[in-house]
Amino acid sequence: MIKASGFGAERFMNMVSYRGVYLWDVEQKGAGVYMRAPMNSIGVLQACQEKTGCRMEVLGYGGLPSKLRRFHGRQMLIAGVILFLAGLYVLSSFIWTIEIEGTERLGHEEIRLYCERLELKPGTWKKRIDTEEATKKLLAHFPDISWISIGIDGTTAIIKLTEIIEETEIVDKGTPTDIIAVGDGVIVKITVERGTPVMQEGDVVQRGDVLISSEIVIGLEGEEQYPEYVAAEGLIHARQWLKMSGELPLTYQEKVYLEEDENTVIIINGKEVDIIYPSMSTIFEKEVLVERQLALGDFILPITWRKEKYIAYEMEERSRTVQEAKKELEEIIREKFERMLSIYGTIEDITIRYYEYADKVTAEAQAVMIEQIGEKRYRRDTNNDTNGESITNGQSHDFAGIWSIR
Questions:
Q1: Looking at the whole model, is its pTM more than 0.85?
Q2: 327 falls in which pLDDT band (50, 70, 90)?
Q3: Residue-level pLDDT at 357
Q4: Is residue 174 a contact partner of residue 231, using CB atoms and an 8 Å limit?
Q5: DSSP string, 218-250
Q6: Among the CATH numbers 1.10.375.10, 2.60.40.10, 3.10.20.310, 3.40.50.150, which is that of 94-163?
Q7: Which residues are bridge partners to 28 per DSSP?
Q8: From 76, 83, 94, 323, which residue has the greatest number of CB atoms within 10 Å?
């Protein structure tokens, strides 16, 4: 970029153009003319300046050659740029991420593990991947896949698939099955969809009793009747009594938390390297706050970064009153009975009896629960290969439990 000034400025521009030098962005500002010229024409410009008697001033240099000239003598910087570009090219020649699209029943991890056996995994050189061969092997290995394609976009391998439409589940209603009791109780409600009820509301049943029979009688009254066998269906709810006992000591040990400290750990190939190991004067608990596996895309590096928290504590002896022990026992018992309930079950009543001793309080509890106790079983006296085999599970409980809290 130059500036020509003086009385010979116009003659200077004409002479330069006549000698084949291209000028552009010509603009007159005040007594000077500003213009741009090629870098290699500096000798012609100086010669024309001397002949025309004008004054020429170089304001600046632009373009790639000028910018590259700045790096003259900075070999390490140039080498760093070259190595960076070379590294970028090498890294872009590998697969670093695997994307799987279209899965519903099949798990991503299952497909990913099989792809690793086919060398289709993070860290694989792209030219080594035969997408057509991998497609054939995936179709042969997974019968639930009806269509699949594998494409490579940059450093990402994209696996798109379509699963076979799942077959409709066929419920066997032809094989005769009875519904039997899976526990003891008193029937409070029975709903029969198919089959013949053997028990009624208020009947006492024991484990193994037939509740709904698969045998139904066909034929009008007064005419010849004959039996047929079906797959019995229905729901039977029974009242059950469950017992539980437990105890709580009046004196116990409790943790009293003191100071906290944090620690950062680097794990390299399974070996821990502590950066800041906390100095705790007493016993402590360790809690992992953050744990991250370092990775390059989907390529897992053998380095793990983990941040931990250490909480020091001491054990102190505490005591509870008899009333506090009874209240805690009641809460624990109710929670345990509720955990035993099925989705169809309800608790009618819980009765708890307490026994006080010098150093503890014990409790004996009984719960009245309503549960679904029916279970399907193949009929024993029909000609099939599964005589007496149970095919669905009902809800049953142990009628006694003993536990202790220290």
A1: no
A2: very high
A3: 93
A4: yes
A5: ES-TTS--EEEE-B-EEEEEEEEEEEEEEEEES
A6: 3.10.20.310
A7: 33
A8: 94
